[in-house]
Amino acid sequence: MFPPTCDRERGGSIHRPDAASRLGGGKKQIYIIRCFWEGLGRRGSGSPSSSSSLLLFLSLAASLSCSRQLPSAEGARGAQIPHSPRRRQAMGDIPGLVKISVSLKIQPNDGAVYFKVDGQRFGQNRTIKLLTGAKYKIEVALRPGTVQATTMGIGGVNVPLEEKSRDAQVVSYTGIYDTEGVPHTKSGERQPIQVNMQFNDIGVFETVWQVKFYNYHKRDHCQWGNSFGCIEYECKPNETRSLMWINKETFR
Pairing between strand 126-131 and 203-214? Predict the structure, then answer.
């Protein structure tokens, strides 16, 4: 056994238990090796165990050298590179504005749809004329083309959307709105119906159309008035990805 630290003073060795503890890193290891070597020198090269002591010294030196090169388990864990947060994909980025175009065409011949101007008598000044028991082809165009609509509803009726084309500027969908089973609107009244569209990762579009449903016997009323190709909406999504704000509505 050898003392943890030693020094030469007045021809002898003095035990200093805190000498090595004041040294750090490589200096502490060199200090221990030097003390051990000096201890071997005092025992003398002629000692029967000098060869085994030399081997013990070399083994100690090698182990201390390895301990300097290999990091501790805690150090290795601490050296790991932290994972950077995942960046949202382009489809998940919120555009500043979303433009929505919705067109309706009565089937089977893509017939025009009309509205009439009611002035201030009802909640809105335009009334869209629709026929009960009919099918309407819905065409939706969204700008920019990076957004994605998942579902659409008109007056509580689900309208599945099928994607037809997509590029960076615009994406288009088509669907069928079926008014089978919808009751006709009484004379002198108007019916507000909710229109909504769910988007993937940017929120929900909601608006209200003022509609008058005519039954089959008064179908001729659906064929006069002001025809329109589509209704356009300029919408602003928000950071909460909830309900979009509608800046403008235009009948074209």
Answer: parallel
Is 63 within 8 Å of 69 (Cβ atoms)?
Answer: no
- DSSP SS3 for 17: coil
Indicate whether 2 belongs to any domain.
no
- For residue 50 the two structure tokens come to 């000098």
Q: Which two tokens stand for residue 220?
A: 């001729």
Domain CATH code at residue 210: 2.60.40.10
Find residue 129's DSSP bridge partners: 212
Q: Tell me, yes or no, whether 58 and 180 share the same domain.
A: no
Q: List the structure tokens of 108.
A: 């089977």
Burial 145-169 (b: 16+ CB within 10 A, else e): ebbbbeebbbbeeebebeeeeeeee
Q: Is residue 208 a part of any domain in this protein?
A: yes
| Cβ 157 vs Cβ 213: under 8 Å | no
pTM score, whole prediction: 0.64
Residue 84 lies in a domain: no
Q: For 212-226, give one letter per residue: b (16+ CB within 10 A) or e.
A: bbbeeeeeeebeebe
Read off the pLDDT of residues 64-113 as tens digits, 9 standing for 90 and up: 554 555 444 444 444 454 544 433 334 458 999 999 999 999 999 999 99
Amino acid 153 reads G
Domain boundaries, position 53: 8-78
Are 172 and 147 in contact by the 8 Å Cβ rule? The answer is no
- 26 and 130 share a domain? no
Domain annotation covers residue 207: yes
Q: Give me the residues paired with residue 181 across strands.
A: none
Q: What is the CA radius of gyration of the chain?
A: 42
Q: How many folded domains does the chain comprise? A: 2
